[in-house]
Amino acid sequence: MNAVDSRQRGEHGSGTALVAAVILVLMVVAAGLLVVAGYVAAAHHARSAADLVALSGAAARGRGDDACGAAAVVASRNGVRLAGCSERGDSFDYVVTVTVEQPVSVRSPVLPDSVAATAHAGKLGLL
Fold it and tell me: What is this structure's pTM?
């Protein structure tokens, strides 16, 4: 046996270990991207739902109904939780402020279970 044969035997299987390490790193990166995508999607949905919930509350207030009650109904129909609702103003000038929470589908143990969004809607002045 010469030196070339012994060196080749010492490196036998090193390619398999390298490929396994690369695959492991790619799997960890893919899992991280999946978690980030879940939080981004939840944040987009929370912002959209907050806008819709605030608008529905303001529309109810404009009709003389309970703004927060209407906002709670619309929030539940859109799969978010109404975390806060307030009404300010009189019958001519008013603002309804809502905060909703959207649960995250792909969770991480170090990140929160839900994302929140706040929106404002109302009528200012006689338009």
Answer: 0.75
